[in-house]
DNA sequence: CATAGAAATGATAATCATTCCTATTTTATG
DNA sequence: CATAAAATAGGAATGATTATCATTTCTATG
């Protein structure tokens, strides 16, 4: 494993959020200042293939990455885009039983307005960026 | 509703697949030859806002659109990309109960290898494009 | 019917996340 | 140390989707 790949994985494991490739770049550059965005993307893809990292594809925003591997789903705020972990609502086995086919993978995303954004909506002010 | 918007909706309602914007363009052009791709995208967005059409965001391919509105989830072949309808595995109400929050929307996608592609994999040949 | 204002269109340019390319650097190995 | 293989940095390319804008099409009204 190259130095940059190790650092990218380490960054993802230490953080409790679900950062984008750009955010990972910024964090990792504290340790490898010359790190390139392409390298981040390449290694994230490798790490996903090795099942050491999970990609969270976003519908209208850059994808997020997740270093937490226990099965879980995601709750996404439609307002601020923040991603929360929630316990898995299905198992692969249950899906296979219900569908009668082998299942390779599945993806569940629930959308809501997070408490912060709900509060802001009430008084009519958003947060300043 | 403009002529092109009506035709786009009609195309989506008549078809049993889950076409991309490009495919919708081709089908709709049989009736409006000068139709522009931008117009297709603009109207698809409007139709989604009006809840007359559902967008199926795809992870590594152009998004699909669905004119079938009964709640259902999607089963996607990792090989050929074909999208199948499956009965909903959750209800919004069940999710809200489980999560203890208001839920705006949710998205469930299950990945598998469809029977066709499984067969092709066996003999080691894919279909000729 | 004429027509003014509004809304939608077609064509094309712009955006932006992600991937690709390549010359260079790093790493592993005998 | 020499060398081949692998990975990198940096920048260009890709491709789906949006934005822009001049022109066309509706629509309502007198």
Brief sketch in words of this structure:
Two copies of one chain form a homodimer. Chain A is built from five helices and five strands. Chain A has 129 residues and is an alpha+beta fold.
Helical/strand content category of chain A: alpha+beta
Strand content of chain A: 15-25%
Low-confidence spans of chain A: 125-129
The mean pLDDT of chain A is 93
Oligomer classification = homodimer
* Interface with most residues: A-B, 23 and 23 residues
Radius of gyration of chain A: 17 Å
Helix content of chain A: 25-40%
Report the strand count of chain A: 5
Strand neighbour order, sheet with most strands of chain A: 4-3-5
Task: Please give a structural write-up.
Chain A has helices spanning 3-14, 21-29, 37-49, 92-99, 115-123; strands at 54-56, 64-66, 72-77, 83-87, 105-112. The first copy, chain A, has 129 residues and is an alpha+beta fold. In chain A, α1 (3-14) packs across α3 (37-49). The longest helix of chain A has 13 residues, at 37-49. The model of chain A is unreliable at 125-129 (pLDDT under 50). At the A-B interface, α4 and β5 of A face α4 and β5 of B. β5 (105-112) of chain A pairs antiparallel with β5 (105-112) of chain B, so a sheet runs across the interface. The structure holds a DNA duplex (30 and 30 nucleotides).
């Amino acid at each position: 494993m190259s130095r940059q790949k190790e650092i990218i994985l380490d960054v993802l494991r230490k953080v409790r959020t679900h950062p984008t490739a750009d955010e990972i770049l910024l964090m990792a550059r504290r340790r490898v200042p010359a790190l390139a965005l392409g390298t981040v993307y390449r290694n994230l893809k490798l790490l996903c293939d090795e099942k050491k990292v999970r990609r969270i594809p976003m519908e209208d925003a850059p994808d997020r990455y997740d270093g937490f591997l226990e099965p879980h789903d995601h709750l996404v705020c439609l307002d601020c885009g923040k991603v929360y972990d929630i316990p898995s609502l299905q198992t692969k086995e249950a899906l296979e039983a219900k569908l009668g086919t082998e299942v390779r993978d599945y993806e569940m995303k629930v959308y809501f307005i997070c408490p912060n954004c709900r509060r802001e909506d009430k008084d009519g002010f958003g947060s300043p960026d």
